[in-house]
Amino acid sequence: MQNAIQFLSGLLLLFVSWVSSASPINVVATTGMIGDLVHEIGQDKVKLSTLMETGVDPHLYKATHGDMRRLQQADLIFYNGLHLEGKMQSILTKMARFKPVFAVSEKLSKASLIHYGSVSDPHIWFDVSLWQQAATQVLSKLVEMDAANQGAYRANAQRYQQQLSSLHQWVQMQIEGLPKSKRVLITAHDAFGYFGRAYGMEVHGLQGISTVSEFGLHDIQQLKQLIVERKIPAVFVESSVPKKFLRALVAGVADSGHELTIGGELYSDAMGLKGTPAGTYIGMVKHNVTTIVSALKRGEAE
Amino acid sequence: MMSDIWILATACLVASSCALVGVFLVLRRQSLLGDAISHSVLLGIVLSYLMMDGRSEIAMMVGAVIMGLLTAWLAEWLQKHPLLKSDVSIGMIFTSFFALGVVLISVYAGQIDLDQECVLYGEIAFVPFDTVIWGGESMGPRAFWLALVVFLVNVSVIAVVFERYRLMAFHPVLAVALGVSVPMWHTLLMAQVSLTTVASFDAVGAILVVALLVIPASSAYLVATSLKTMLVWALGYAQLSVLLGYGLAVWLDSAIAASIAVMAGVLLLATILFQQLIQKQSQKASLASEAH
Cα(B109)–Cα(A34) distance, rounded to whole angstroms? Predict the structure, then answer.
């Protein structure tokens, strides 16, 4: 009897230690981009859930009952910060009092951000070099939380950082391939400020930073004038923003005799479907840049 | 488990407040006031942002409550115009307030993310995460305490001035003849509406509040025989909507607030169908007895 109990408790101990060593840490990411970053660095060492899945505009995200559970069971939570998550951010900062919750934008220097008055532009992922800093932040928090697997995390992060570095250079080269006068990017909302600054493109959005705000007539007039004067061949729609406003702009410009096309769909606030090329961060950036460059070059050939 | 209880408790309190206030709104044909306030608060938020130059949550709450009161009060005032009905006056006020808010944003604050959705409206799923910490101990969610205070205020106000409210709801002319100061009690009711809606927006988001102001009170209106029983029925419908809606949200992994609002609608529909069924049966019965 005694032996049996000893044997059973020994088994139990073994089981407990096996469970605690094998069960990966639960990580929750708010956006698909951050989820991809955690996936690249954590690989099979983390169990990842992403709250805002494909195609969801972060401004319009509604939490489900399961999201509450996932946040509750998380060992580590990453969010974008800079008010991308809206009111949810104030909840996340409050959760930080009793749970490890970190903004991937936390360590970015003030000078590296684009400011509008007292508020910063949250779309940092379109400057690949800023996203590399976000990756560093994710790595350091994963290592802090789960030191046992730090070797794996560091190796994954190093490999991924190299990929990001070459992506950064690739984007630079692509944009440099465009004639200077053609480096104008017009999109549905102001998501590409960091992209423009990092790679030397002039950026104009029909809507403001938030997809909820509306645009003034004056803005449209100015935009039309700019397009006609500078003979801009294409504007771009975004996957997570309704397309009708940009279509209206194209029709309006056509009336004044200048041919303007919709150059394609860019991924801005959300990535593409899982399993498609644009379903990863790198794939999304590549898709955007290829779409932009080929549409703007098309105008060049004519 | 604990967080489910906190969410349910908060939702039940919010639902009760909304149902109680909603009864008077439904009786006075002003049930869309909640929806109106959910839009006109934008102007309050923008104004407080422009005046305080920053996103102070408390300043924006205060701005929202003031704007809610102003909406309710102006709607009441316009209604006195002989040619403007109550739906017109409510519709006019909140659309112009909302529009003015949008104009101000596009002129002064076009570059920032400022709207009621991301500044004021809470998310009921995140209620358990925003706790009050007092003396190092977690005292439960902030939204729960807010909802409790609002509920107690509503219950005590209604208990104290029940007779006045009843007179105002059913016999406004008689009330004036009896020398009851109708405008004063109107203002008190509107203050209750404004406080309840804005505080509940902050705790659980907008859809739920708008739905709970209208639907449980309407269901209760179908079955109740007096103001007192209508209040009780409204409370009952509200609690049942919360429980069934939460069950639906767990089952489907859907948005909690929307699921509760959906169940409130389903209960209203079920009540109507049930009543029609009863009516048909009694008609049949009376026809049968006539045939004999």
Answer: 28
Kindly tell me if the per-residue pLDDT of A19 is higher than 60. Answer: no
User: Do the chains contact at B113 and A86, CB–CB below 8 Å?
Assistant: yes
How many other C-beta atoms are found inside a 10 Å radius of the C-beta of residue A223?
20
Q: What is the pLDDT of residues B79-109, one digit of tens each?
A: 778 887 777 888 888 889 988 888 887 777 6
- Give the lowest-confidence range in A7-11, A172-176, B250-254: A7-11
Task: Give the span between the Cα atoms of B206 and B221, in whole angstroms.
Answer: 23
Q: Is A88 within the bounds of a domain?
A: yes
Same-domain check for residues A216 and A258: yes
Q: How many CB pairs under 8 A join A and B?
A: 109
Q: Would the CB atoms of A63 and B113 count as touching at under 8 Å? A: no
pTM of the model: 0.79
- Separation of alpha carbons B68 and B73, rounded Å: 9
CA–chain centroid gap for A23, Å, is: 28
Tokens of A203: 């950026």
Instruction: Give the domain-ending residue among A137, A171, A205.
Output: A171
Of A215-219, B72-76, B107-111, the range with the highest mean pLDDT is B72-76
Residue A6 lies in a domain: no
B3 Cα to chain A: minimum distance (Å)? 9
- The CATH class for the domain spanning B2-283 reads mainly alpha
Contacts of B257 in chain A (CB under 8 A): 62
pLDDT of residue A249: 82
Q: What does the alpha-carbon distance between residue B291 and residue B287 come to, in Å, rounded to a whole number?
A: 6
- A95–B3 C-beta distance less than 8 A: no
State ipTM.
0.72
Q: Which residues are bridge partners to B203 per DSSP?
A: none
CB contact under 8 A, A90 and B254: no
Q: A234-238 and A261-266: which strand pairing?
A: parallel
* Residues B166-200: tens digit of each pLDDT: 988 888 788 888 888 888 888 888 889 888 988 88
Domain range for A277 is 176-301
Task: Give bridge partners of residue A77 from the DSSP assignment.
Answer: A28, A101
- Test A68 with B254 for CB contact under 8 angstroms: no
Whether the CB of B121 is below 8 Å from some CB of chain A: the reply is yes
| Distance from the A80 Cα atom to the nearest Cα atom in chain B, whole angstroms | 15
Q: Please give the C-alpha separations between residue B111 and each of A197, A249, B229, in angstroms, as whole numbers.
A: 17, 20, 51
Residue B168 burial (C-beta neighbours within 10 Å; 0-12, 13-18, 19+): buried
- CATH number for position A239: 3.40.50.1980
Q: How many domains does chain A have?
A: 2
- Mean pLDDT of all residues in B201-217: 89
- Residue A5 resides in a domain: no
